[in-house]
Structure formats: structure tokens, C-alpha cells
Specification:
442 residues; alpha/beta; TIM Barrel; 2 domains; 8-stranded parallel beta barrel; 4-stranded antiparallel β-sheet
Length: 442
């Protein structure tokens, strides 16, 4: 699994490639991050009449073989500075992910054949013409160009709007040269999940229509926590190919008044998203210190305009000096670190999961509508026991005292025969996540 950190370099510190150095990477490693998605690297249209905002959208690509000059300390050396960024990222043990936008480009992009129309209200773009005989070849050349520079993966934008036969061909051709290349698809229709993974070759897909939408409905509308189990069951063998998230550049900030309105409500959702089902997880820069998009519009940090989110400024100072976070931001970050640190344990890294919601009821204080519980475990080599951790999440606004029933069919496993029957859990605050290591006495 991957833990991906998404960041727009232009709003981090001075907005330069050089801001991503040893201190920044050490910070990411403290969150168990495995890959960085540098959003908005490839050169996009800016300062022209059709451009939305200033400097404009990273998804209106102007030159697919260049990077944005404003990201370089020396614009004339921008590609060299990008390549050094890739080298620093790799030296820190992290993968580099950039955007691939196959559906549309800037109207003045010379790299690809274009149709004379745009989708939706994306008036700063024109749709790529896949009926043109040169499109496939040119797209392959583009991806190989970036792969040659050390890019490890592509977050592929709006792939449901691109011919699937093209995507299948493209991924296969790239992997002839770079067999480990990571492809992440922005896919929204759950009915397409299996095809994009099993037939087209994507490694990870956004689970926006599953995990994200269910979590949002639970937190904002009081929907049932049972839907998290239903989503897990419906995905079945596709679960390891999912990418869970609470935020990204398209969605409203979790802490904004348009979503949860309080960053502390994220902990239960974070625990389920990152720890429950073996899916990969994505963090959007600033969410771990409560970025609320107060500087933006309708709860989103703008991808069209220059902006300086206050919490990101605080976080950048903290990364540089160890100071700069207020008490609330520091407490949030500590909890993110605590929960994400568990991913280094074998039971979470590649162990088994047991959903405990079906066998618990209000009899012991557990409400399946508002609470969620599961066990992660992994058998230890050459031993008749397992490392196990109980995770219990409170999606309610009330404190609660409960006992979690660990059923007989779980405890009858030889490696788990030592488990207690009903460990106790006490929530003292809403939206908490408890992680309880269970230790064998054998």
C-alpha cells in the first residue's frame, strides 16, 4: 500500500522546487508517507485571456514537455531543478508522482491534436482528439519523457472521459519500458472499478464514490456507519487497489464549514480510511494541521489563483524550525502521526482484517449506526500467535463507554486463541479513534 502526500508546490513556502529538501522529506517520513504527488508541475497556461485565475489551472496543460517556470529559482534552469527534485525525493526513499491529463489541454498546447470544444465549463481547455492518428503515439512519447526523468507514477485525470482502449494500450506500452510504473486513476463510477483495474491495468483508483462519499454522509448527514462495511464487502478483491482520502484539490477541505467544520472530527474517518482494509491512503497538504480554506471559495484551496493558506504557512515554519504550530494544530498533527505510524506494524502493513461490527450491539454500548470496530492481525513467523490491534472508531458526537465482543469464530483461530472476549473501550471525546494493542500471554 501507499501513503501519498499531495501538494501544490506553488503554495508551499516560497513556492519553489527547492523548498522540498531534507527537512521537508523528514517531515513526510514522520507521517509514514511513501510517495509525493507534486500537483501542477507540468507547464500550464498562464496570463492569457482564456485562463481561469492567476496563475491558472494545473489542468490546462500548455507544454507537456516543460515545467512551470515559476516553480524554479532560476526559470531558465527549471528542468534541471525539477530533475534534482526527483533525485532528492528518491534519496529520501519516496516515490515521485505527477499529473497526467489525458482528456484535455490548453487551447494553445502544440503537443496534441485537439477538438474544437471543451467538456463542462472547462473553458480554459479543449478536448484531446483521439480520432487523430498521431494522438496515441504522442501521448506515449509524453509519458516516456517524464518516466525517463525518474517519475515513478502518474495520477491520471478524468480517465472515464478517455477511450478505454487507448488507456489499456498506453499503460501496457509504458510498462514495456518501465514495468513498475504506478498508474492512479480518477474514477468515480463504481461500476467501472473492476474494468479499470483488471482490464485496463490501473494500480489504484480513487474510492470517492465509496469510502469518501460514505464518510462524508456519516459526518455531515448522520448516515449509518454500517455503510463502511457495505462498501468494504462490495469491493471484495478490489480493496487493495483503492485509494482512500478525506481531502484532495477537487474536494472541500475537511475542516471547512462546508464539510465537517472541525478538523478534530477526522480521527475516526482517518483510522478507517488508513487502517481498516489495506487500501492506500492520501493526505492533502495541510489537512493534518486543520487547513480550512478560509482564504478560498466554498471550502476549497484554490488551484487557479495564488494563495497562502494560513495553516500551510504554519506547517511550513514548523517543518523548517520545529516551531510555528498553535496548540490545536500541534494536537491534530500528533494524532495524525500516531494513527499513521501504525502502518509500519506488520498487522496493518500486510495482515488480515476482521470487521467486528456485525457481532456487536448496543447491549455492550456499541451502536452499529455510530461506531465502527475491526481487528487487524498477522501471524508471527514460527509462533502459534499473532500480533493484533483492535481499532474502535466513534462517529458520534457523544462520549461512550463500551465493551467490544470478539466472537468465538475469531478466537478459535489457533494464533488468536488468547484474545480476550470483551475488551473495554471508553471514548471521552467525539469522533475519536482508539487503537488497542492486544498482547498474547502465551
Amino acid at each position: 500500500m501507499e501513503v501519498i502526500y499531495q501538494v501544490l508546490p506553488r503554495i508551499w513556502g516560497k513556492g519553489k522546487f527547492s523548498e522540498w529538501d531534507g527537512a521537508a522529506f523528514a517531515y513526510l517520513k514522520s507521517l509514514n508517507v511513501t510517495a509525493v504527488w507534486y500537483t501542477g508541475v507540468i507547464r500550464h497556461a498562464s496570463g492569457k485571456p482564456f485562463v481561469k485565475g492567476d496563475p491558472g489551472s494545473p489542468y490546462s496543460i500548455e507544454d507537456y514537455h516543460d515545467v512551470n517556470p515559476y516553480l524554479a529559482d532560476r526559470p531558465e534552469a527549471r528542468m534541471d531543478e525539477f530533475e534534482k527534485l526527483v533525485g532528492r525525493t528518491h534519496k529520501a526513499g519516496l516515490k515521485v508522482i505527477i499529473d497526467y491529463v489525458p482528456n484535455h489541454v490548453s487551447p494553445d498546447c502544440p503537443d496534441l491534436p485537439k477538438c474544437n470544444f471543451c467538456d463542462y465549463d472547462w473553458t480554459d481547455t479543449l478536448k484531446v482528439d483521439y480520432s487523430h492518428p498521431d494522438t496515441y503515439r504522442k501521448m506515449l512519447e509524453i509519458l516516456l519523457f517524464w518516466a525517463d526523468k525518474g517519475v515513478d507514477g502518474f495520477r491520471c485525470d478524468m480517465v472515464e472521459m478517455v477511450p478505454p482502449e487507448f488507456l489499456e494500450w498506453l499503460i501496457a506500452e509504458v510498462r514495456r519500458v518501465y514495468p513498475k510504473m504506478l498508474f492512479i486513476g480518477e474514477v468515480y463510477d463504481r461500476n467501472n472499478y473492476r474494468r479499470f483495474i483488471k482490464e485496463l491495468g490501473f494500480d489504484l483508483l480513487y474510492d470517492k464514490s465509496g469510502f469518501y462519499d460514505h464518510v462524508r454522509a456519516i459526518i455531515c448527514n448522520g448516515a449509518s456507519a454500517r455503510n463502511l462495511t457495505r462498501n468494504w464487502q462490495s469491493l471484495q478483491d478490489l480493496q487493495p487497489n483503492m485509494l482512500n482520502f478525506l481531502e484532495n484539490h477537487d474536494e472541500q477541505r475537511f475542516a471547512s464549514p462546508y464539510f465537517a467544520g472541525d478538523a478534530r472530527k477526522a480521527f475516526a474517518a482517518l483510522a478507517v480510511g488508513a487502517l481498516f482494509n489495506g487500501a492506500s491512503f492520501m493526505i492533502y497538504a495541510g489537512q493534518e494541521v486543520g487547513a480550512d480554506a478560509a482564504e478560498g471559495a466554498e471550502g476549497r484551496t484554490s488551484i487557479f489563483n495564488w494563495t497562502s493558506p494560513l495553516q500551510l504557512e504554519h506547517l511550513h515554519r514548523y517543518v523548517r524550525s520545529g516551531k510555528g504550530l498553535d496548540a490545536d494544530e500541534s494536537a491534530l498533527l500528533s494524532e495524525y502521526r500516531r494513527l499513521l505510524s501504525l502502518l509500519s506494524l506488520p498487522q496493518f502493513r500486510d495482515g488480515e482484517v476482521y470487521d467486528l461490527c456485525w457481532c456487536n450491539s448496543i447491549l455492550y454500548g456499541f451502536d452499529p449506526e455510530k461506531h465502527f470496530a475491526f481487528l487487524r492481525y498477522k501471524r508471527l513467523p514460527r509462533k502459534r500467535k499473532a500480533d493484533a490491534t483492535l481499532v474502535v472508531c466513534n462517529f458520534s458526537s457523544e462520549p461512550v463507554d463500551m465493551k467490544i465482543n470478539l466472537p468465538e469464530d475469531l478466537r478459535c483461530k489457533k494464533e488468536l486463541s488468547w484474545l480476550p472476549q470483551r475488551p473495554g473501550v471508553q471514548f471521552t471525546a467525539p469522533y475519536e479513534a482508539y487503537t488497542i494493542p492486544l498482547t498474547s500471554t502465551q
